[in-house]
Amino acid sequence: GGRVLLLLVGLAGATGQGQEWDLGGRDASVITVSNGGPWGDWAWPEMCPKGSYASGVSFKVEVPQGVMEDDTALNGIRLHCSRGGDPSGGYAAESQSGRWGRWSEVHWCPHRGHLVGFELQVQAPQHKLLSDEVAATSARFACSDGHVLEGPGSAWGQWGGWSPQCSRAVCGIQTRQDPAWGLKRDDTALNDLRLFCC
């Protein structure tokens, strides 16, 4: 299962440097999962504007590249924020995303619902010569009415179980990204995810 951490001022030590992040003046707790990939660093958190919550999500995914090419699968996640579940004129909260792939259409919670939890599909480290590491390959998000929003599918990796659920709603995101290494290196892009509850 996941862990819940209580935040009152900021997220200390997010990248091991002890920074405190601006969470838009909001008290927030963090929900996590236990199966995230091991590579990369935590990027900055990005919050929905005060008074709004995440009610939709979109996914940046690289399609399979073929036998001799480097795959990265899931590269990014955007939260689509709204007030009262109204999707018009909303704000997209996005922590760091990888450079590969395309953004999907927005998946919205029905009935003016909002996001309350998530789970990740992750390929465990292969640790084999010539293996292509991809880390996170897909994600699912739970809506307040029990509906599940799922990203574009992948044949790689296993689902790791749901995070704890927010008592009210998801209001922010932080990603763990492996940087682009360039020629002759194995890129994995998105490795792990934290969501903020407000």
TrEMBL record:
Which one Pfam family would you cite for this protein?
A: VOMI
What UniProt keywords apply to this chain's record, in alphabetical order? Signal
Which GO CC terms are listed, alphabetically?
A: extracellular space
Q: Where is the signal peptide?
A: 1-16
Q: Does the keyword Signal apply?
A: yes
Mind telling me which PANTHER family this protein's record contains? VITELLINE MEMBRANE OUTER LAYER PROTEIN 1 HOMOLOG, VITELLINE MEMBRANE OUTER LAYER PROTEIN I-RELATED
Query: What name does UniProt use for this protein?
Result: VMO1 protein
> Which organism is the protein's source?
Pelecanoides urinatrix (Common diving petrel)
